[in-house]
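Page 37, top half.
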Amino acid sequence: MKKGKVDKGFELFYDNLSYRRKLIRTILMIIIGTLVGILLIYVFDSILVSVFYWVSFIISGIIQFRDNYKACKNEKNQ
């Protein structure tokens, strides 16, 4: 039995969230990912690790945020 998208309360699975909640979770992950990136700079003290992390983090974060934002706006307008 498949239920609708969750817009309130806790939901463990990302696919069960509405696009608004996916956007909120993406923003939270960007904040947490930034903190992890800063921690990596101090722990590994390696430019290669830092550059690889930040490039992949920024590219994936922008793509995910853009897609969720567009879908959230489309869902809101319907």
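Page 37, bottom half:
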Amino acid sequence: MKIATILSLGAMVLTVPLSRADVVGAWLFDETGGDVITDSSGNGHHGVLVGKVERTPHGKRGKALEFFEDEDGAPDWLWGHVLVPHHDDMNLLEFTVTAWIKVREFVEPGFGEGSISQTLVGKTSHISRSNYMMWIWGGGAGAEGQGGHVTIRFTVTKPLWASVSVNKTKAGANVIGGNWHHVAGTYKEPMLYLYVDGREVGRRENEPIKNPNTDVKELPQPSFAINRGKEGPFMIGAQLIGLQHQGQKPSHGIAGFMDEVGLFNTALPEEEIGNIARRGLGQYLSVDLRKKLATTWSKIKARE
């Protein structure tokens, strides 16, 4: 009877959703197929695959997604991505964004010479209308950017935008070249922090976020403004961009793979970022089975 009870409890623990009060969304990309991307946090922020995105069994942990540009120029989208509809709990004044990425040798993704940014993840309707966004920037025209400098940037609104960037020449900060790298960014007023492979590689003091809402009608009017009167979606693998009054197109996408995207409503310290990189997002967020079983066993013994 005791063994049966423990086994039953153990099975129950194994199916517990990822559980941390500060996690907003966790997308592990381990579905067997279909277009739905499950939010494993239990908060219901499920996404959908849009455009040219392929599932691969060769992720950092389990399966992953590979993103491509639309070669045929389909009118509804330009770059494959995951689209997660807006929810108010994604408008954040403090946050952490994490992801595993595997980027091929830096290539011109086909959205305009001189602009070779690759969006990883963000709550955005454009870079200057993002609550938060993590992206890779080439810094100029050409396949390798000016002088071969490729940076990874983490952006927040203020209410326009500011970013912290790290050049690939910084030791341990190069994320281009076809290997898996864990990237993360955090913001807690007034500091932005950027991490690569669990280690801090950049920081910047930033003004407070005055308005985390990506609804552009509440922000100053730039030369282009899209998604007017609507909340910007949470997107993985691309961002929305377009000329004023001419709609919006998913562009500036990642030329490579992504795995285990996480969003938190708090700025995690470096130790926790390192734990996510080492253990994996799913295991980091899951209830610790051994501790649960030990506690359960203690309770059973106490009843005897």
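Margin note: DSSP finds four helices and 18 strands in the chain.
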